[in-house]
Amino acid sequence: MMTQKEISGLLQQPLYGNDGHKIGKATRVFYDDVTGRPDWVTVKTGMFGSSESFVPVHDAVATEGHLKVPYSRDKIKSAPGVDISAEGHLSVTEERRLYGFYGVDGDALLRRRAQERPAEDRSMDREAAAGQRVKDRGTATDQRTMDESTAMDQRAMDRSAAMDERAAMDQRAAMDQRAAADQRAMGESAPRGQRLVAGQQAETPAAQGDAGATDEVMTRSEEQLHVGVTRQATSRVRLHRVVETEEQQLTVPLRHEEVHLVREPITEENRGDAMSATELSEAERVVTLHEEKPVVETTVEAKERVRLAVDERTEEQTVRGTVRKEQIRLEEDKDDDRRR
C-alpha cells in the first residue's frame, strides 16, 4: 500500500492503466481520516480533461515516476460520479458505490480500516457506547412517564371534543326544525302556484343538512407548464493539422551580361597598344557572358499557435406544450311535471 510521501510525489504526473495506455494526470488524492493512508486519487479524463474519475489506489504501484493502477482506461472513464462534501470528504455510501463498481470488497476494506485505528480510540468508543446505553435507559423511563401523561391529556381532549360535537348537532337540528316550520307557514299562506315552488325550495335545506356547503362549491384545477433543461453532448471537436500545397508567385530581380561594340579612335596615348600587330591578319577573341538564374528552396517557419477554446452562449427558445384545464358550467334540470 502506498504512503503519503509516495502518492504526493506523483500528483500532476501521468496515470497508466493495466493495458499500458495513459489515462490522464493524477490531480487530487483523498486520505483516510483515521489512518491517514491514501485511498483514492482523481484523474482527468474525457476530451480536454473535462471529466474527473475516482480510482482506488490500494493496489496501485509507482513505476518510473508515474502511477499505475490495475484497471483499464475504459473502466476508469466510465466510473460513476460521486458527491463530495463541502469539507472535501467522501461519504461511506459513495465509497461503497465506487468499490462496487471496481469489483473491490469495500466492506472488507472498511472493516480492516476500523481495526487499524489506535487502541485508545477504540476504548473511547466502547466507553461512549456504554454511556449512551445508560443514557438511553434513563431516557426510556422519562419517555414512558411523558407518554402516560400525554395519553391522559389526549383522552380529556377527546371527551371535550365529543361534547362540543353533540352540542353542535343539537343546535343544527333545532335550526333545521325552525326553518322547516317557517317554510310550511309560507307555503300555506301563498297561492297554489307559489306553494308548489315553496315546497320545492323547502327540500333544499333538508337535502343540504348533511352535505353542508360542499354541494355548492367546486374546485377547478388546471395543469401548469414547467420547462427544465438538461445538458447533453451534441458533437465532438478535435484539432487536426493537415498539409496543403499552394502555388506562390514572387518577382525576383535577375542580372545578365550583354556584349556590344565600343569603337575608340587611335590617339598618341594608345597607338602603341593598337599597333601591336605588325601584319594584317584575322583574329578572334572569346568573351564569356554570365546571367543569374532563380534558385527555389523552402524553409519551415512557425507562424501562429492555435488552441481550442469553449465558449458558452445563451439563446432564447420557445417551448410549446399541451395542458389541460377544468371548466365549470351551470346546468339546471327543470321538472316538467310540476309545471303542468
Automatic annotation (TrEMBL):
Record's protein name: YsnF/AvaK domain-containing protein
A family per Pfam: DUF2382
Compositionally biased intervals (Basic and acidic residues): 115-147, 155-181
Domain spans labelled PRC-barrel: 2-74
Superkingdom of the source species: Bacteria
Signal peptide: none
A GO biological process held by the record: photosynthesis, light reaction
